[in-house]
Amino acid sequence: MGNILAGYFAIAKAKGGLVAQVKLAMITKMSLEKAKQAPDSQENIKLFEAAIDKV
Amino acid sequence: MVRFYNSLQFRLTVSFILLILLITGLTYFSTYNEAKKALKETVREELIEVIGIASTQVKGDILKKMLLLKTGDEETTEYKEITGFLLGLRKNSKDLANFYVLRREGDKMFFLADDAYLETPDDFAKIGEEYTDNDEALIQGFTAATASPEFYTDKWGTFLSGYAPLKDETGKTVAVIGVDMAVEKVLDKQKFIGSLLYIIIGLSIVIAGLIILFFSRTIIKDITNLTKATSRISQGELDVQLPEIKSRNEIYELNEGLKSVVAAVEFLKDAAAEKNIEQNK
Fold first, then answer.
1. DSSP 3-state assignment of B147?
2. What angle do CA B113, B114, B120 make, to 5 degrees?
3. B34: which residues sit within 8 A by CB, 6+ positions away?
4. Rounded to the nearest 10 degrees, how much is the dihedral formed by the CA atoms of B39, B44, B46, B48?
5. In angstroms, rounded to a whole number, what is the distance separating the alpha carbons of residues B242 and B258?
6. Considering only alpha carbons, which residue of chain B is nearest residue A36?
7. Does the reported pTM lie above 0.80?
8. If exposure means fewest CB atoms within 10 Å of the residue's CB, which of A33, B33, B107, B219 is most exposed?
């Protein structure tokens, strides 16, 4: 549960460090902890995919 | 905590009510006054029309008999015939008070006949009785069919009257015929319009009340929920469930923005906590 979503925070960190992770949290409206608890649904993955392109 | 009298709900409700009262009040006064004027004008036009027609009926023998009447002739057959004729002119109109005929001698007016004789024998204008409360339209009535511009009061009551000239076979004006409409008849019609306006205003207030209720239950409720959540966040509670706003309006945008900020703060808080743990190892 939420492993795929949490992985996006690692990608963001690699792309732009802490600032990129904060941006990702803001766009998805989910903190890392919330992302870990959220289901890896198609909808959520789509949301994170779109957000990672913006950070 | 927002005090009740400072709340958006209270202020919007009060503003709405004041606005409704202002608009309906202005509408009532302007509409009612205009309706009153229009109604009076309609009554005047009706009186001019009625008296114009009536003046064409008083001719030939009946007019000659009328002009021959002398003081004290009230009990004669001729007078009864004349007043019966005048009464017959208004039998189909319940709004008209009475018909009468006046002749002019210099600046003075004297009654020749009054159909009130047949209905109220104790209170009618007798033959030769001078009419002193001259309605300004009465003088004009010797020239053409006209009606009083305003209500006037004499010893028989308050009326709006119509007047028209009576002409002999040579075309000379010999008298004037008048018809009265009692003020009560016009006031009854005005009251009816007033009541109708009250009903319309009452309905408007009820509809406006329903609109206020709708606002209270949708927009204001969303703002209230958002305010409560923001208040908890300001106290350090980041794990607050922000409201789900269905309408895609400004409040929705504000709520979504707040969700982003809360997510960012939560992330930073978690990151700081994680860093602390790592430093303490």
1. strand
2. 140
3. none
4. -170
5. 8
6. B267
7. no
8. B107
Beta bridge pairs of residue B173: B167
Any idea how long chain B is?
281
Question: Mind listing the pLDDT tens digit for each residue in B17-37?
Answer: 888 889 888 888 888 888 888
Residues B221-241: pLDDT tens digits?
888 889 899 999 888 888 888
Is A31 in contact with B263 (Cβ distance < 8 A)?
yes
What is the structure's pLDDT at B1?
58
Q: How confident is the model at residue B169 (pLDDT cuts 50, 70, 90)?
A: confident
Smallest CA–CA distance from B269 into chain A, residue: A31
* CB contacts < 8 A (A, B): 36
Chain B residues close to A6, C-beta within 8 Å: none
Alpha helices in B68-111 (DSSP H): 77-89
Judged on CB neighbours under 10 Å (0-12, 13-18, 19+), A14 is exposed
Assigned token pair, A53: 């392109």
Q: Quote the CA–CA distance of B223 and B220 in Å, as a whole number.
A: 5
Inter-chain residue contact B267 with A21, CB threshold 8 Å: yes
Across chain B, what does the average pLDDT equal? 87
Query: Smallest Cα–Cα separation from B126: which of B142, B148, B102, B106?
Result: B102
Q: What is the DSSP string of B40-77?
A: HHHHHHHHHHHHHHHHHHS-HHHHHHHHT--TTGGGSH
Residue of B31, B40, B53, B48 whose CA lies nearest to B185: B40
The pair of structure tokens assigned to B200 is: 């319309």
For the segment B179-193, the average pLDDT, to the nearest whole number, is 85
Q: Is residue B101 a contact partner of residue B86, using CB atoms and an 8 Å limit?
A: yes
Are B78 and B69 in contact by the 8 Å Cβ rule? The answer is: yes
In 3-state terms, chain B is what percent helix, strand and coil (to 5)? 60, 15, 25
